[in-house]
UniProtKB/TrEMBL annotation:
<feature type="region of interest" description="Disordered">
    <location>
        <begin position="67"/>
        <end position="95"/>
    </location>
</feature>
<comment type="similarity">
    <text>Belongs to the amino acid/polyamine transporter 2 family.</text>
</comment>
<keyword id="KW-1133">Transmembrane helix</keyword>
<feature type="transmembrane region" description="Helical">
    <location>
        <begin position="205"/>
        <end position="224"/>
    </location>
</feature>
<keyword id="KW-0966">Cell projection</keyword>
<keyword id="KW-0472">Membrane</keyword>
<feature type="transmembrane region" description="Helical">
    <location>
        <begin position="484"/>
        <end position="503"/>
    </location>
</feature>
<keyword id="KW-0812">Transmembrane</keyword>
<dbReference type="GO" id="GO:0005774">
    <property type="term" value="C:vacuolar membrane"/>
</dbReference>
<feature type="transmembrane region" description="Helical">
    <location>
        <begin position="332"/>
        <end position="354"/>
    </location>
</feature>
<feature type="transmembrane region" description="Helical">
    <location>
        <begin position="141"/>
        <end position="165"/>
    </location>
</feature>
<keyword id="KW-0813">Transport</keyword>
<dbReference type="GO" id="GO:0051939">
    <property type="term" value="P:gamma-aminobutyric acid import"/>
</dbReference>
<feature type="transmembrane region" description="Helical">
    <location>
        <begin position="450"/>
        <end position="472"/>
    </location>
</feature>
<feature type="transmembrane region" description="Helical">
    <location>
        <begin position="300"/>
        <end position="320"/>
    </location>
</feature>
<dbReference type="GO" id="GO:0015179">
    <property type="term" value="F:L-amino acid transmembrane transporter activity"/>
</dbReference>
<dbReference type="GO" id="GO:0030659">
    <property type="term" value="C:cytoplasmic vesicle membrane"/>
</dbReference>
Amino acid sequence: MATLLRSKLSNVATSVSHKSQAKMSGMFARMGFQAATDEEAVGFAHCDDLDMEHRQGLQMDILKSEGSEEGGEAPLEGDIHYQRDGTGPLPPSASKDACSELSGQGKPKITAWEAGWNVTNAIQGMFVLGLPYAILHGGYLGLFLIIFAAVVCCYTGKILIACLYEENEDGEIVRVRDSYVDIANACCAPRFPTLGGRIVNVAQIIELVMTCILYVVVSGNLMYNSFPNLPVSQKSWSIIATAVLLPCAFLKNLKAVSKFSLLCTLAHFVINILVIAYCLSRARDWAWDKVKFYIDVKKFPISIGIIVFSYTSQIFLPSLEGNMQNPKEFHCMMNWTHIAACILKGLFALVAYLTWADETKEVITDNLPSTIRAVVNIFLVAKALLSYPLPFFAAVEVLERSLFQDGNRAFFPNCYGGDGRLKSWGLTLRCALVVFTLLMAIYVPHFALLMGLTGSLTGAGLCFLLPSLFHLKLLWRKLLWHHVFFDVAIFVIGGICSVSGFIHSLEGLIEAFRTNAED
């Protein structure tokens, strides 16, 4: 039996290791850390169900083998007990820990600094370009929200990781869950053991697809404003960008694309520095009197979504923390990354708004003089197009796993043949997803509205609402009163902001959709 168990664990560990390395090829580059941008970080979303099938299959195989070898029936789940001498069958949590431990062997581990690089790229990427527009409608309250969102997202990231751990019978804190989906399923068990995971997966898919749409929108917007004299509309530029992106439907992995991630990240930081340098050169003309203490009631809720969306990183934190050399450094890493993000975002948004005041546009680079705007925007377009495959590939994998590859629960036949080749309906799904992002970008070409809608819907849910709710549900008996207060306050405030931002963003999108349909 011991030989059989070791063989099963070894086979599963090998399969899991290969799968995890393939799924996170953009995360752990050859240098030992992820050189991913904020958009690339969403590629971690599809890892939330990682190894679930293998863990379940391992447990069932062990139970069946145990029953067949001893000539009796396999014990029921309630009859499985952990034995210190190791003679008894492993409980689900023990088999999960063993599988996770073995699957982690041979995988490159990252330091706290490298993990901080990942988080920094996740929350300080391309979508920071929309923050000055948030200050336009929020004034000083918008600046406060940039600080407030950093504090809350840092806190919810920590409590989300706390939900991965529980005390064993010896009083030791051990990791019993591996992903956001595991946490959600644990909260909904035993009545609805998979409901939470499905909700999280739907939120992931929405956020990933909306991120792809934003790349197409921003590409069309930047190219149109870079070459306004050309007889090419913004919609036409979006179509051209989508034509370039169509080969993404044939992607089998992200190995080739991930090689450009570091260059994209460095280019983006250079662009941010150029924008700030230009703003500082016009410091004498800064319009301090334009920064308002009041808000635009109709448009400010959209700004809330923009700010929240710029901080979204919770979806890949469990995977990141699980691959750290010293997970105890996770809290410290979260502190300094979010403090740095708060300072840099606040300065960037304020300085840019002071420079252009009421003329601030949805994408701040559109305010630059024409002499440098074209060069900066071309770099940004290249970055957006190179970043598009990552969320697209993650969304495709979640859809394929849920609809085509989920064992007996799949809705459609497997989209891959026995030789591993993609079948026609699988390719149709991918092409349809690319075309869908184009149609949305054409009919709703509003970067701020789409970003606000996504931040209010999935961003607030994944970063504010669900972590606080899960923390209360799983660990409420061990929480101090101030932790309970913080969780309840975050849930209530996050819910209000989410509903308000979603309603206003949706109204703006419907109005924009009608306007474009009439045109």
